[in-house]
Amino acid sequence: MNNPEEVEFQFSTQKFEEEWVGKALKNFQEDGWFSGVLYRVKGGKEAQVYCCKASPGMGVDLIAAKIYRLRRNRAMKNYAQYQQGRHITSDKRYLRALKKKTRTGKAVEDRAWLKHEFRTMQMLYHAGADVPQPFELSGNTILMEFIGNARVAAPLLREVRLDPTEAKPLFDRCIENIEIFLSCDSIHGDLSAFNILYWNGAITVIDFPQAVDPFDNPSAFSLLVRDVERVCQYFSRYGIQSRPVDIAADLWRRYLQREL
After folding, report:
1. Rounded distance, CA 183 to CA 162, Å?
2. Given this model, what pLDDT does residue 69 score?
3. Average pLDDT estimate for 45-69
4. Whole domain around residue 45: which residue ranges?
5. Are both 141 and 163 inside the same structural domain?
């Protein structure tokens, strides 16, 4: 059995990072998912992503390890809004812990946050959405398809300058993805050019822990409108004119009528 310190890092790290990442990836390493950590990808508000070299026979060359930070080190903006109507547990002990906001309750809530993202990605991937293929979940870490190569990760959409001929097809595909999400009873809830990757002429949508169920969350429609508005706002720089509220309203109408 390997110790956390035995995870192979192929980039410069500090001891605390090696210990943190080693602990998070220990189970995956023991199960033969990867043979080393190639580099650190720019982190987000809640998690840090690492590019890992997949072990032979995994079917892919690279795997992304998304490691969530401890709650006290995370930015949990609008957390309560996203949690509205979400089922976390039926266990009465855990429900009491959640209500009292005890240490156990917070751990249960955090675990549910990760499981929700993993299950949402599974559902959307199989529905044909442009999301990374999720592989495994353990502890505070999700393994998923890596978008990029062994030297560099796919940039965020906001970081690239699109060819004018790409803009309209990519805009249309972004709206199609929002429609696929909705057809699966899911709204991203925080969609923007900050969590859409661009690689080889295609988009990949990431970051789904806050995704909401339209039936259960009273803020669902406003979140849908915001997602559409942010996508439209980004592509307006390429001269693409759109009516985001009308787009969102049409999607919502067709969703309620089960036409998606």
Report:
1. 29
2. 86
3. 94
4. 15-149
5. no
| Average pLDDT over every residue of 94-108 | 53
> Rounded CA gap, 63 and 25, in Å?
12
The domain total for the chain is: 2
Same domain? For 94 and 160 the reply is no
Structure tokens at 218: 């009273």
pLDDT in tens, 111-157: 778 999 999 999 999 999 999 999 999 999 999 999 999 999 999 99
Q: Which of 129, 119, 126, 125 is nearest to 203 (CA)?
A: 129
242, pLDDT greater than 90: yes
Distance separating alpha carbons of residues 158 and 20, to the nearest angstrom? 30
Tell me the C-alpha distance between 50 and 221, whole Å. Answer: 34
pTM: 0.88
